[in-house]
Amino acid sequence: MVNQRSHTSLVPLSLFLGCVREFGCLEELTILRYFLPVPPQMRPRGRLLLTSRIYYVEIEDYPHNISHILSALTLPANADVLLRGSLGGTSIEKCATSLAAMLPADASSLPILRDVSSVTVKCVPGSCSIWARTAGLPNCGRLGLTTAMKDSIIAESWGKPLNGMLLALKDIFPLKAPIERLKCIGALDDVSSDTWFATLDQLPLLRVLELDLDEFAAGRSASALLSVLGSQSRRVPKRVVCPALENLQLYADYPATGLVEDLRRCATERKELGCRTTLGQLKLGLCSDAPGPSREDEERITGSFLQNGLADKVIVEILLPGDDEQPPIIEFC
Predict the structure, then answer these.
(1) Cα–Cα distance, 37 to 45 (Å, whole number)
(2) CA dist., res. 55 & res. 173, Å (int)
(3) In whole angstroms, what is the distance from residue 161 CA to residue 222 CA?
(4) Which residues contact 165 (CB under 8 A, 6 or more apart)?
(5) What is the mean pLDDT of residues 166-195?
(6) Which range in 70-79, 187-196, 223-232 is most confidently predicted, on average pLDDT?
(7) Among residues 70, 91, 132, 149, which one has the fewest Cβ atoms lying within 10 Å of its Cβ?
């Protein structure tokens, strides 16, 4: 179902909801900008499709329209679901709330929310998205929540949506969701300590945390994140935040002279709270504003992390501005 004409050709959503029960044999569903907007408080009318064979769903529409459509379906746990909310000129503050607004009223009709094991949060100029996938199924399910925004809106301060999106994870996925991997892409320096704490304290099963840059920018610091990882959980007394953490990937400014101390302090605090002190793998991207780091410098930095017993395996990448070639990688274990 694709509307290739103007807004005036959109049809009422109620027409679709009235016949959704007849889709018992449907395997793919694609809806692109087809329905008139409906108010958020509207209740879906018509009989629901309680079981289905749908393995692929792609919907691009107003966020609340998407929610009404999903509320009328019950999808298999291994379905691929791609949802794109049409926001137009909305504000930055509404970006994260719009992602959650696309979900069905009853989360049980979208089982991937309950079974998710891996989550990626990405905020770049023009688009904000959350990607998730399950594990342990014959065919893992995948979920994509995206919003398209004008570049000029996000360019004002494109780190703000990332803060909101991380905080929105608790509204999208239930507290008991078995999330073991989290990847964040965007303006990471704009993520506050309070946001890191609120996000990570909800993920006791997290084993892998990856922080990635969308573009080369100055002022990278991991202090706020490492301070949170060395803190005591507010949900479970005497337990550290992310007690199952094994692999950590982060970025810092070259030569990262303060990072070893930040990591050592984090490891000490985690040990005092009964957690293992050594990561299985530490991957570090060092951003240099000018060319110059030698291989000896790279080996020295890598060795300092190993000598302090901060990780069983250390990978260091030197990142230079405007360098399109693959950065040098120094790996020791």
Answers:
(1) 15
(2) 21
(3) 19
(4) 95, 96, 99, 121, 123, 128, 130
(5) 88
(6) 223-232
(7) 91
> Looking at residue 41, what DSSP letter applies?
T
Which segments within the chain are labelled E, that is strand?
Answer: 28-32, 56-61, 80-88, 116-124, 127-134, 142-149, 181-185, 208-212, 247-253, 279-287, 311-319, 329-332
Whether 57 and 74 have beta carbons less than 8 Å apart is answered as: no
Contacts of 261 (CB under 8 A, 6+ apart): none
Cα Rg of the chain (Å, integer): 22
At 40-69, the pLDDT tens digits run 777 655 556 666 788 899 999 988 889 988
Regarding pTM above 0.90, the answer is no
pLDDT per position as a tens digit, 197-208: 999 999 999 999
- pLDDT score recorded for residue 89: 53
85 beta partners = 61, 147
Which amino acid belongs to residue 165?
A: M
Write the DSSP assignment of 261-321 as a string of letters.
HHHHHHHHHHHHTT--SSEEEEEEEEE-SSS---HHHHHHHHHHHHHTT-EEEEEEEEE-T
How far apart are the C-alpha atoms of 122 and 146, rounded to whole Å? 9
For residue 208, what are its two tokens?
Answer: 């892998």
- Compute the distance between CA of residue 191 and CA of residue 200 in angstroms, rounded to an integer: 12
Stretch 147-156: mean pLDDT: 58
Distance CA 169, CA 80 (A): 19
240 CB burial (10 A radius; 0-12, 13-18, 19+): buried
Cβ 192 vs Cβ 164: under 8 Å:
no
How wide is the angle at C-alpha 88 spanned by C-alphas 84 and 89, nearest 5°? 140
